[in-house]
Design brief:
The protein has 226 residues and is mainly beta. A 7-stranded mixed beta sheet has the order 5-6-1-2-3-4-7, with no helix packed on it. A 6-stranded mixed beta sheet has the order 11-10-9-8-13-12, with no helix packed on it. Strands 14-15 form a two-stranded antiparallel ribbon. A hairpin with a 5-residue loop joins strand 9 and strand 10. It is rod-shaped and about 100 Å long. The two termini are 63 Å apart.
């Protein structure tokens, strides 16, 4: 049966023969494989729910045993795939979900879009603002950004320079300055009295090497070369 054919039906209880309200929607299992309960509003327009397993019959109307089977509305379980956009693995637009077919236990057989596309539950992956549909396995965490590896403290090795005196100085990096020519500076490099040696995104030239040497900034230029 189609879920949209159930919405709007009136609910009656057998014990006291009362009219309880009108079906207004459904509550789905988190993976959208089953309808857990039906939502309804009563004569006073209060929101309630009925577990699907408590329903005695669904025909022109819905029958339940007694009024005690009405449950308070649970907002935390109100997430629904209805009206969500469906995009397949090739970027195709399958339309928006407008209905689903369920069996007598509430198990969902398939969803249907406004483009008359039939969607199997096992191929649906609900994202924040759309449904991704693919027959291949999809694991969202495999698509997260890859950040740079952060070294743990125990992985950091510190070398202490030994000397016969109390004066310690870092060893200068040895490199071929000509290898920097033609590379792009990642940031602006300033010399003595804040004189600009090279600006960010400019190309390093032979003159840049000479200026950096004169300002004792060759090491800094090396680290800015991209």
């Amino acid at each position: 049966m189609e879920l949209t054919n159930i919405i709007g039906k009136q609910v009656f209880c057998l014990y006291k023969g009362e009219y309880l309200g009108t079906i207004s929607g459904a509550v789905f299992k988190n993976d959208f494989t089953k309808v857990l309960s039906l939502k309804l509003f009563d004569l006073d327009e209060n929101d309630c729910q009925i577990k699907f397993s408590s329903i005695k019959a669904i025909g022109d109307h819905i029958l339940i045993s007694n009024k005690s089977q009405l449950l308070p509305s649970l907002l935390e379980n109100s997430h629904s795939p209805f009206f969500m956009q469906v995009i397949d693995h090739q970027g195709g637009d399958l339309g928006k979900i407008v209905d689903c077919k369920i069996d007598k236990t509430g198990t969902i057989e398939c969803f249907v879009t406004d483009k008359q596309k039939t969607l199997l539950c096992q191929n649906m992956y609900t994202r924040k603002s759309f449904v991704y549909y693919t027959e291949k396995s999809f694991v969202a965490k495999n698509y997260r950004p890859r950040g740079k590896k952060i070294l743990a403290l125990e992985d950091i090795k510190v070398s202490v320079l030994s000397s016969s005196t109390d004066t310690f100085a870092p060893t200068k990096i040895k490199f071929n300055a000509d290898n920097m020519i033609g590379k792009i500076a990642k940031d602006t490099l300033l010399g003595i009295n804040n004189e600009v040696i090279i600006r960010a995104n400019q190309t390093i030239t032979n003159k840049t090497i000479v200026d950096a040497t004169n300002h004792n900034r060759l090491n800094q230029l090396y680290f800015l070369a991209n």
